[in-house]
Design goal:
This protein has helices at about 1-5, 45-65, 65-85, 85-95, 100-120, 155-170, 185-195, 210-215, 220, 235-245, 270-280, 300-315, 335-350, 395-405, 420-425, 465-470, and strands at about 10-15, 15-20, 25-30, 35-40, 125-130, 135-145, 145-150, 175-180, 205, 225-230, 250-255, 260-265, 295, 350-355, 360, 365, 365-370, 385-395, 410, 410-415, 435, 450-455, 455, 470-480. The protein is of the alpha/beta class.
Length: about 475
């Protein structure tokens, strides 16, 4: 596995693998055991410029390429991922600390998004619209945006890079991708290798491994990209939006969440427990859609709580390479320390720890907190770690009020024995997505994905991706002669 990472520990610009020209290295660590996987010399602002210029040169010809040829590249990329699935799984376990369950979940979705990208290449359609002007024909074309900058996160780096990169390429754009510095291979150079093997022409996908400390806002401010697709925290997302607005660039922002999973008084409690445990603790809780808050009707609170705590206590914490492990490491020790501080602070405020997780390096065992004071900051913030908040409520109205009492609005779930009742409650939750009798962590290739409030701007997937990564062009044709007033 070590050679896998060192072979990909380079910049990928204009179809060439080369070392960065910066004065320092990003060290890629295994978050579980601290093993050094690779070191990558950072890209400079000059190399960011080279990447964007290469993309600009290559994109014009790519946009004119037959859509069936673009589709063929997507088909080959899918085959490469399928052939390399075992190797990519090992990489996700090593670089992210992802468990085998998490790696399988991420790879399954990645392949589904590649299958959708195969179809996207052929999907943009033009229109002919009527005109009030005699003899005029209005043609509406859907054309690529041009060059897209993609900035991806560390938690699902292969998937979340791919779900912007692959559709953008399929639709005739070129891409410059900057992966998170904690996952430079799975989120960046691995994708470059996949598309290189798939026969993507040079310059269309460029990967720059770097950091804001080196390049500042060069990735955002560069004049070439017309759109930035960013996935990450709302704090950084606000900065991205501000810089891009000043440059009149379009943005797609997939940001944080503070999702609520609501258990109504008629829910199947055993099933709701299973959904809640997965929704909160998958990938150690490092998921934007995770159920931070689990809201339970007081009529079933005692029974649900007992079953929930028992199931969480049975989760196995340890080496993500062991298939029996449920909870692996957080991405780094700083994140582990931050989660520990959140738990300690909330307990000091008066909450009760039904399970009090402890940190051992980057491993953090799960916590379950209840009796949380109404004004506690923890109820309103995103928790990127294995901490569940159990919050009781009396009736649907209070459940809705509590669920909406957050600056975020990404995902959510409602559990009930009456589906239409669940839908009615779901319609009252201010969120981009909500799931009835299911978990909160879902993504599907053709369903619009995105959030409200501080959870982001815009949508991706299916038709929403076409809308995001293309633009419309009006060409009118006057078959007769227009009459002009002078």
């Amino acid at each position: 596995m070590s050679s896998f990472f060192t072979d990909l520990a380079l910049q990928y610009i204009d179809g060439e693998w080369r070392p960065g020209k910066g004065s320092w290295d990003i060290i890629d660590f295994n978050p579980y055991n601290g093993e050094k996987l690779a070191s990558i010399t950072v890209a400079t602002t000059g190399e960011v410029d080279q990447a964007y210029r290469a993309a600009e040169r290559a994109q014009a010809e790519w946009a004119e390429t037959n859509a069936y040829a673009r589709r063929a590249v997507m088909e080959k990329a899918l085959r490469v991922v399928e052939e390399r699935e075992a190797e990519i799984t090992e990489a996700i376990v090593a670089e992210l600390g992802g468990t085998h369950v998490k790696a399988g979940f991420e790879l399954h979705l990645a392949k589904e998004f590649l299958r959708e990208s195969v179809q996207l290449a052929l999907r943009p359609a033009g229109q002919i619209l009527p005109s009030p002007v005699e003899g005029k024909e209005n043609r509406l074309y859907r054309v690529p945006v041009g060059v897209i900058g993609v900035i991806s996160p560390f938690n699902f780096p292969f998937l979340l890079s791919l779900k912007s990169v692959a559709p953008a390429l399929a639709l005739g754009n070129a891409v410059v991708l900057k992966p998170h510095q904690n996952t430079p291979v799975c989120g960046g150079t691995l994708l470059a290798k996949v598309f290189e093997e798939a026969g993507l022409p040079a310059g269309l996908l460029n990967v720059v491994v770097t950091d804001i400390a080196e390049i500042g806002d060069a990735l955002l401010e560069h004049p070439v990209p017309q759109l930035i697709s960013f996935t990450g925290s709302d704090k950084v997302g606000r900065h991205v939006a501000t810089v891009c607005a000043a440059q009149l660039k379009r943005t797609v922002l997939e940001l944080g969440g503070n999702s609520a999973l609501i258990v109504l008084d008629d829910a199947d409690l055993d099933y709701a427990v299973d959904a809640a445990v997965f929704s909160r603790y998958v990938h150690q809780g490092q998921v934007c859609m995770a159920a931070n808050r689990i809201l339970v009707d007081r009529a079933v609170e005692k029974e649900f709580t007992e079953k929930f705590v028992a199931k969480v206590a049975s989760l196995r914490v340890g080496d993500p390479a062991d298939p029996a492990t449920h909870i692996g490491p957080l991405i780094n020790s700083s994140q582990a320390d931050a989660i520990s501080r959140i738990v300690e602070r909330t307990v000091e405020e008066g909450a009760t720890a039904l399970l009090h997780g402890r940190a051992d390096g980057t491993l953090v065992s799960p916590s379950v907190l209840t009796g949380i004071p109404a004004g506690s900051p923890v109820l309103h913030e995103e928790i990127f770690g294995p901490v569940a908040l159990l919050v009781p409520f009396d009736g649907e109205d209070e459940a809705v009020r509590i669920a909406n009492d957050t600056p975020y609005g990404l995902s959510g779930a409602v559990h009930t024995g009456n589906i239409e009742r669940g839908v009615r409650v779901g319609q009252r939750i201010h969120t981009g997505m909500i799931h009835i009798n299911d978990g909160t962590v879902h993504d599907e290739p053709i369903v619009p994905f995105g959030g409200e409030k501080s959870s982001g701007l815009g949508r991706l997937n299916g038709e929403a991706t076409i809308e995001a990564f293309t633009t419309q062009k009006w060409i009118s044709v006057q078959h007769g002669r227009s009459q002009f007033p002078f």
